[in-house]
Specification:
Elements: H1 3-20, H2 33-44, E1 55-57, H3 61-68, H4 77-85, E2 86-89, H5 91-95, E3 106-107, H6 110-122, E4 131-137, E5 140-145, E6 156-160, E7 162-167, H7 170-183, E8 186-188, E9 195-197, H8 199-209, H9 213-216
Antiparallel strand pairs: 1-2, 3-4, 4-5, 5-6, 6-7, 8-9
């Protein structure tokens, strides 16, 4: 384990303890999305040596601005940070090799997310929430809520038929998923689809990072 990985592991352990005694989660705002994603990738790539190679190069700020210049919404800064890390996964990893980045979901390229967003708008299914999809599995999505003004973060919705708030933000979603891997609530088996889940432990972790789940979901709802 590198010094960087040890430091991030310590930070997560301290976060778990701090949250258990009621410390404000905002103290972890200094953690970057890319750092959290790299830690998650260390787990999911352990059983898929080609997973890292399936990630597309990240976008620049200018490229993201070019994509959204004609949109009436602003993408949360956390989501922009994610796409600066990597611009989703390539088509081969999805359709031929069925690779997953985290949990069991595929990471959508920004251009594809934009196409889905416009399809939802066209079908008048996206008027109020202005949802922008990020992760997908067989037409089930995790999507961020956008607004007309720039926001650092916004809730993450599980979209499958309807839409339900599943996480307080992209960062708290990723931190809770990382803790599930770190704590053994998610245990990866011999291949990328072999994921054993301690449902009670995972539910407790996700609720601790995401208080919205207390009112939006039953304890063992899977999102």
């Amino acid at each position: 384990m590198s010094i960087y990985q040890m430091m991030l592991h310590f930070t997560l352990e301290w976060a778990m303890f701090s949250l258990s005694i009621g410390v404000d989660i905002k103290m972890y705002d200094s953690l970057r999305i890319a750092e959290i994603m790299e830690s998650i990738l260390n787990y999911t790539s352990a059983v898929d040596s080609e997973l890292r190679n399936s990630l597309r190069d990240g976008l620049s700020s200018q490229q993201i601005d070019d994509y959204i210049q004609n949109m009436s919404i602003q993408i949360p800064s956390e989501v922009e940070e994610l796409y600066k890390w990597h611009d989703g996964m390539n088509d081969e990893s999805r359709w031929e090799n069925q690779r997953v980045l985290l949990y069991y979901h595929y990471f959508l390229p920004f251009s594809e997310s934009l196409d889905i967003y416009y399809t939802w708008v066209k079908n008048r299914a996206n008027e109020d929430l202005r949802l922008f999809p990020i992760f997908e599995f067989e037409n089930e999505f995790y999507a961020t809520s956008c607004s007309s003004t720039k926001q650092n973060s916004s809730p993450i919705y599980n979209v499958y038929g309807g839409s339900t708030i599943a996480y307080d933000s992209l960062k708290t979603m990723l931190m809770s998923i990382l803790e599930c891997y770190e704590s053994g609530a998610y245990q990866i088996g011999s291949d990328r689809w072999d994921l054993e889940i301690d449902e009670e432990r995972a539910a407790e972790i996700k609720l601790r990072w995401n208080p919205c789940r207390n009112t939006e979901l039953s304890l063992f709802d899977h999102p």
